[in-house]
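Q: Hi! First time asking for a complex rather than a single chain. Here are the components, and I think there are two in total. Is that enough to go on?
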Amino acid sequence: MTVIVRTVSSWVKVLIFLFGIYIILFGHLTPGGGFAGGVILASSYVLLMLAFGRTFVEANLPRSLASRLDCLGAFVFALIAILGLVFGGTFFVNFLYQTYLPGRPFALVSGGTIPLSNMAIGVKVGASLFLVIFTLAAFRAESQEPSEGNPANQGPGQKE
Amino acid sequence: MAYALCFLLFMIGLYCAVVKKNMVKIVLGIVIMEYAVNLFLIMLGYLTGGVAPIIERSQYDAKTQTIAAEFLSASVDPLPQAMVLTSIVISLGSLALMISICIRTYAKYGTFDITEIRRLRG
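A: Yes, that's all I need. Here is the structure of the assembled complex.
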């Protein structure tokens, strides 16, 4: 991309990432939540991928790390649900809010397990959406040069 | 009337998915059908003159821990919106799957026309 796109995206990427974190953290108070914030987190990396190319982004956030974050988000979300079953007696019950953390309404720490679930979903959605777009970019790079015999492009991440 | 338009949008998507021969157009038809269903579910929870289902501080009574009655009667139903959000996530995943299948097919056969993709090449 041109130098204008590179410069502006290198400034804006931090703001987009911060806005995604804000949307995730305040998901139980304002519109938004884990999914919307995760999409915003992934879109900051997509912006980097559009401006600086795929190899730069892979050096920044490796595919194995993104895959691990993906699995970690799903695992934490299921763990919170099962902890609700263990401590509260029902699957997904909000055990923190009822017993340990009786917060005021409209405060940041007032949702019990809901902000934790939002964070897990945010990490999960951000990493998996990043992997989806990354894999599509790898497909495109592979289909553009099908018979070059480039070993770097062989076997892009088909398993997500 | 609005439900009929929703059904018309669904039928446009179904026509596109059934009749067209280009794989990308089939994917677009499926996505249009998904959006028609999403629009239908959103409109089920719609209330004429309703407000967004987000409580503000002035509408919450901290002493009795109750929500103001006029907010409860005026807000739209939040349940279809949460359902449609989940539906959008699933349609995003299926869209990525369909697009990657299209890309792989184009890389293997060099065409998007489904009538020309017949032979199995191992």
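A: The first helix of chain B runs from residue 2 to 19. Let me know if you'd like any chain examined more closely.
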